[in-house]
Design brief:
The chain folds into two domains: about 180 residues, 2-Layer Sandwich (Alpha-Beta Plaits); about 160 residues, Dna Ligase, domain 1. Helix 9 crosses helix 10. The chain is an alpha+beta fold. The chain is built from 14 helices and twelve strands. The protein has a five-stranded mixed sheet with strand order 5-6-1-7-8. Strands 9-12-10-11 form a four-stranded antiparallel sheet, with helices on one face. Strands 3-2-4 form a three-stranded mixed sheet. The C terminus is likely disordered. The chain is globular, with a radius of gyration of 24 Å.
């Protein structure tokens, strides 16, 4: 069985970019945060910080206690997107990037002589050298090479930082036995609990289990897929449709009032609407959520005829906001979600919608183009005015914004 896939996983990506940009930070414990407040979480940490137990998801207040000398930096999404595209270009100069898995992870299909072990190893070392020479020495990566993408991803996580691991057919399945069940992509806490209930508590038991046992553990065909993936086989997965588009934000201390929380929600909603249009969808539902001090939470949602017009969403948001409870403590975090998504080409507006959708659609298109040409917040609806400096773009690891949309 030939080696077919090479996966590159960049180590502590956001933090590494900051160390590349700011040499004074190299060798120091540092974490990147979405906003400068102790109530949020770290979204990246250098390996110097990880030695103190600080990692993605660590509360900032706890991180400060673990490492009093910790340097905190507010995230710069546009910079990370720029580096992401530079890294793709560097990798592409060695071997074509087949799939972008996330902002810090790419996959390359190996063909011809690259499928041989020694040739694949030389290619991996060439990629590392090219990145160091053209992007920066701080952008270290762990590379995994295997017969399929699942095992290549697993291999990329087996040696960090700056790792290089090959899983070849003769290595299977024994090379996987030292791992934990949750080291595999797709096995989280709930899946691990289900595997334990099926009598599978180790990776060795997982690899030796018959297909029928895995089908029971996954409650269907996903168990068959896992059986094949563990043996190095290539598995075709059905394409999945997008279910939601949304944004959330932890409020800075200065924004922890209901009027400013409302303005931040306006900003998030306008961003989500623009993204919905760029993806080519209409939404038939809007959800709003707010977390408050004291662990209180409020959420509400409403369904409506499919639309992608920002003004329609603002009208619905206004109705939902009026339904919020009174006498609430200060808000801590807010979020909006557009759901019931339908591809735009599948929706035909009714006669009552045609005239209004033409007017609102032209307005939205003009605003989107102006913001793309002249930078974010060039034009916007007034509800977001008090919060223009809040809710900066955050990068979901499976969604990388276009570089031109992050500038300005």
């Amino acid at each position: 069985m030939a080696l077919r896939v090479l996966v590159i996983d960049f180590n502590s990506f956001f933090a590494s970019v900051e160390q590349q940009e700011q040499p004074a930070l190299r060798g120091r414990p540092m974490a990147v945060v979405p906003v400068m407040t102790d109530s949020t979480c770290c979204i990246a940490a250098t390996y110097e910080a990880k030695r103190f137990g600080i990692k993605t998801g660590t509360n900032v207040g706890d991180a400060r206690k673990r490492c009093p000398g910790l340097v905190l930096l507010e995230a710069r999404p546009s910079l990370y997107v720029e580096y992401h595209h530079r890294l793709i270009a560097a990798i592409d100069s060695c071997v074509p990037v087949t799939q972008v898995l996330s902002i810090d992870e790419m996959s390359c299909a190996l063909r011809g002589p690259w499928r041989q072990r020694e040739t694949a190893l030389r290619l991996a070392r060439e990629i590392k050298a090219r990145i160091a020479a053209t992007v920066g020495e701080c952008l270290r990566s762990s590379i995994g090479i295997a017969p399929n993408g699942f095992l290549a991803k697993t291999a990329s996580d087996m040696q960090k930082p700056d790792g290089l691991v090959v899983i070849d057919e003769p290595d299977l399945p024994e090379v996987l036995f030292p791992l934990q069940l949750r080291d595999f992509c797709g096995i989280g806490a709930s899946r691990e609990a289900r595997l334990h209930a099926c009598g599978i508590t180790t990776v060795e038991q997982l690899c030796r289990a018959p297909k029928e046992a895995l089908r029971r553990a996954w409650n269907g065909i996903e168990g068959d897929r896992m059986f094949a993936l563990l043996r190095g086989e290539e598995v075709e997965r059905p394409s999945s449709d997008r279910c939601t588009v949304g944004h959330s934000h932890v409020l800075e201390p200065k924004c922890r009032t209901l009027p400013l929380a409302e303005a931040v929600l306006h900003r998030l909603l306008q961003k989500a609407a623009a993204r919905l249009r760029a993806l080519g969808y209409l939404a038939g539902g809007l959800g709003v959520s707010v977390k408050f001090l004291g662990h209180q939470h409020w959420s509400d949602e409403m369904s409506f005829l499919e639309t992608q017009d920002t003004l329609d969403f603002i009208r619905v948001f206004g109705l939902l906001w009026q339904r919020r409870p009174s006498s609430l403590p200060p808000p801590l975090a807010v979020g909006v979600t557009l759901f019931h998504l339908t591809p735009a080409h599948n929706v035909t507006p009714n006669l009552a919608q045609l005239e209004l959708s033409h007017v609102d659609g032209a307005l939205d298109q003009a605003m989107d183009k102006l913001n793309q040409c002249y930078g974010k917040n060039t034009v916007y609806f007034g509800g977001a005015q008090p919060a223009l400096d809040s809710a900066p773009t955050l990068i979901a690891f499976t969604h990388i914004p276009a570089l031109e949309k992050e500038r300005g």
